[in-house]
């Protein structure tokens, strides 16, 4: 049985492998590509719509996280994901 996780933006439930996982390492956001870092994290769909909506929510300070994470470093990780997906 595959583990289901929920996107923090659209709330779509999907397999872990179909979502990006971002964790906090001393409040610095890191992309957990292998999804094995032992830390609390957030999941987001692998599409630009959800990523852009999360960037907008962070910019407008309308998104609160249950993990201690630096919002500027999270925005940087999300922007890098958009660039990577454009390849």
What would you note in describing this structure?
- The mean pLDDT is 89.
- The chain has helices at 48-59, 71-85, and strands at 4-6, 13-15, 19-25, 28-31, 41-45.
- With 87 residues, it is of the alpha+beta class.
- The protein contains two helices and five strands; from the N terminus they run E-E-E-E-E-H-H.
- Helix 1 runs antiparallel to helix 2 (71-85).
- The protein has a single domain, classed as Hypothetical Cytosolic Protein, Chain: A.
- The strands form two sheets. It has a three-stranded antiparallel sheet with strand order 4-3-5, with helices on one face. It has a two-stranded antiparallel sheet with strand order 1-2.
What labels would you give this structure?
single chain, 87 residues, alpha+beta, Hypothetical Cytosolic Protein, Chain: A, three-stranded antiparallel β-sheet, two-stranded antiparallel sheet, 2 helices, 5 strands, globular
List the helices and strands and how they pair.
Elements: E1 4-6, E2 13-15, E3 19-25, E4 28-31, E5 41-45, H1 48-59, H2 71-85
Antiparallel strand pairs: 1-2, 3-4, 3-5
Short description:
The protein has 87 residues and is α+β, with helices and mostly antiparallel strands. 31% of the residues lie in helices and 25% in strands.
Distance between the termini: 32 Å
The residue fraction in helices comes out at 25-40%
Residue ranges: pLDDT <50 for 5 or more in a row? none
Rg result: 12 Å
Which structural category fits the helices and strands? alpha+beta
Mean of pLDDT: 89
CATH H-level superfamily: YlxR-like
Per DSSP E runs of 2 or more residues, the count of β-strands stands at: 5
Strand order of the largest sheet: 4-3-5
One letter per element, helices H and strands E, the order comes to: EEEEEHH
Strand portion: 25-35%
Assembly state: single chain
Q: What is the top-level CATH class?
A: Alpha Beta
Shape estimate: globular
Biggest sheet details: 3 strands, antiparallel
